[in-house]
Specification:
The chain has 3 domains: 112 residues, 2-Layer Sandwich (Potassium Channel Kv1.1, Chain A); 77 residues, Serine Threonine Protein Phosphatase 5, Tetratricopeptide repeat (Alpha Horseshoe), CATH 1.25.40; 289 residues, 6 Propeller (Neuraminidase). It is globular and about 95 Å long. It is an alpha+beta fold and 554 residues long. It is built from 17 helices and 35 strands. Pfam families: BACK, BTB, Kelch_1, Kelch_KLHDC2_KLHL20_DRC7.
Length: 554
């Protein structure tokens, strides 16, 4: 509807001019034009077409509130409606009753934006009640992807039917780090009404992937639970699972793991003293690496790396002969490489970060020169723009973004590891020196983690490091964090499921193949897998799993 027509119709509605009928909601009457209402609602179209016009020209809707009817009529005349927390439930119910699809969609959009742990179950049920399949699907996925919080904290979770709970816990999309979480959520649901729900345990336990639960937990917790131990069917399932877990790995059936909501992407690096184009994806649920890109492409090493809007960017680089300003982009959707706008400067050993939809390339080397200038790439224009230069020239520095600023730490200039650090404010186009590190380091990995910036490992000019320090921009102070299990430099780092992962890297001239993981809750590092990428100078990021990646998951 054009703005001019909308204005005319609104004036007709407000002035009550040329009206041909009246709608009464409660004790309030509204003068209306039937043809206008027919345009927005199949209900009114059928009503006015097939039901004779009352002699008094009044259509009565005694159960509809005047407030809701006023909003529906305003939408009919203006094609717009204001949805709020106060009116959304009533408005959706009445829009469903009167088949006003525009208002239904507006209410669904509003509720989707409001999805949270405390209301996702009620929104799921509401969408089912009013036949809103898109909202219902999104609410269902929200519950699946936030199941740990919903199952442990939500009061609405306790109101699920046994069939609804079964549908959730049998789904591969259920996002749980440990399968024992599923069992504990079932117990919480049953204990809410143990007399009525105790008999549902066999059907629910059948959906728990018992082979993913450690034997100690099965023996010490599951089998000793009163509801489980009192059910022969449940005990048969637990006993069978324990027997299978005691078999050799070769004879043991392979359990079906849950699909992760996030995956770790590891890109490029060096293998056998040669640069690599490999892109691999790590499934934390199955502890499994999957190759994504096998397309040959002329490789460079020591390039910058960024992930932005579903694409991997490899920026600049060095092949032991020349430095590059070229930028190539790998699309996860099409699985293809393309060249995009080149940088102004040739750079190797550069630092890269993303902020507000842009990519920042900073410092690096150019033959015998260490750079301090920086530039920014905007994908919409496919162009790089020079920004203010840093205070210090630096190569092999670590960079990350936090709270709307770009941070860069350490690096090397003239073979001397740097301890200084600085931040860039894009609003003022200025770099500011910040509190330096206690010792210089180059080739360390840097990442934003829980409102701090972690600087991990690297090389101090004498030896490779396993030390970890964290910088808090709010206090401008550094603190020591538990060190890694192994010293390493030039490795990948990413935050996956609230934990810090490091991948590959160099140590004493060799390459690492393991993954280490840091849990801030315990301030401890542990080995996740010894089956990781055997690569140095690898780059990492974490991305939400989407349909283009699902086919690659085992």
């Amino acid at each position: 509807m054009t703005s001019a027509r909308s204005t005319v119709f609104r004036e007709l509605f407000l002035d009550g001019q040329v009206c041909d009928s009246v709608i009464r909601a409660g004790d309030v009457e509204f003068k209306i034009h039937r043809i206008i209402l027919c345009n927005c609602s199949a209900y009114f179209r059928d009503l006015f077409s097939y039901k004779p016009l009352p002699s008094n020209k009044v259509y009565n809707f005694p159960t509809v509130s005047p407030k809701a009817m006023s909003l529906i009529l305003e939408y009919a005349y203006t094609q717009s409606v204001v949805v709020t927390e106060d009116n959304v439930l009533e408005l959706l119910a009445e829009a469903d009753h009167f088949i006003v699809t525009g208002i239904i969609q507006a209410c669904c959009d509003f509720l989707e934006r409001k999805l949270c742990v405390n209301n996702c179950v009620s929104i799921y049920n509401l969408a089912h009640l009013h036949n809103c399949p898109d909202l219902r699907g999104k609410a269902f996925l929200y519950i699946l992807h936030h199941f740990e919080e919903v199952g442990a904290l939500s009061l609405e979770f306790l109101q699920l039917s046994v069939q609804q709970l079964s549908d959730l816990i049998e789904n591969d999309e259920l996002n749980v780090k440990q399968e024992s979480t599923v069992f504990e959520a079932i117990l919480r649901w049953i204990n809410y009404s143990p007399v009525e729900r105790g008999c549902d345990m066999p059907a629910l336990l059948k959906q728990v992937r018992l082979l993913l639960i450690p034997t100690e937990y099965l023996v010490g917790t599951v089998s000793r639970n009163d509801v489980v131990s009192s059910s022969p069917a449940c005990m048969d399932m637990v006993t069978t699972a324990m027997k299978m877990l005691n078999e050799s790995i070769v004879e043991r059936p392979i359990p079906q793991t849950r699909l992760p909501s996030e995956v770790l992407l590891a890109v490029g690096g060096w293998v056998s003293h040669l640069p690599s184009d490999k892109i691999e994806m790590y499934n934390v649920r199955a502890d499994y690496w999957v190759p994504l890109s096998l397309t040959p492409y002329a490789s460079l090493g020591f390039y910058g790396y960024a992930y932005l809007n579903g694409c991997v960017y490899c920026i600049g680089g060095f092949d032991f002969t020349s430095f590059s300003s070229h930028v190539r982009r790998f699309s996860l959707t099409s699985q293809t490489w393309t060249e995009v706008g080149p940088m102004h400067e040739e750079r190797g050993f550069l630092s890269v970060a993303t902020l507000n939809g842009c990519i920042y390339a900073m410092g690096g080397c150019q033959y015998q020169k260490t750079l301090k200038n920086a530039e920014r790439y905007e994908p919409d224009t496919n162009q790089w723009t020079m920004i203010a230069s840093m205070h210090k020239p630096r190569a092999e520095a670590g960079a990350a973004t936090l709270h709307g600023k770009v941070y860069i730490f350490g690096g090397v200039t003239e073979d001397e590891p740097l301890s200084c650090a600085e931040s860039y404010n894009p609003d003022t186009n200025q770099w500011t020196l910040i509190t330096p590190m206690e010792t210089g380091r180059t080739g360390g990995a840097v990442v934003a983690y829980n409102n701090e910036i972690f600087v991990v490992g690297g090389f101090n000019g004498i030896t490779q490091l396993r030390s970890v320090i964290a910088y808090d921009p709010r206090t401008r102070r550094w603190r020591n964090v538990a060190p890694m299990l192994h010293p390493r430099e030039s490795f990948g780092i990413a935050v996956l499921e609230d934990q810090l992962y490091v991948v590959g890297g160099f140590h004493n001239g060799g390459l690492f193949c393991n993954l280490e993981c840091y849990d801030e809750k315990t301030n401890r590092w542990y080995i996740v897998s010894d089956k990781g990428m055997t690569q140095g100078a690898v780059s990492c990021c974490v991305l939400k799993r989407h349909p283009d990646l699902t086919a690659y998951l085992p």
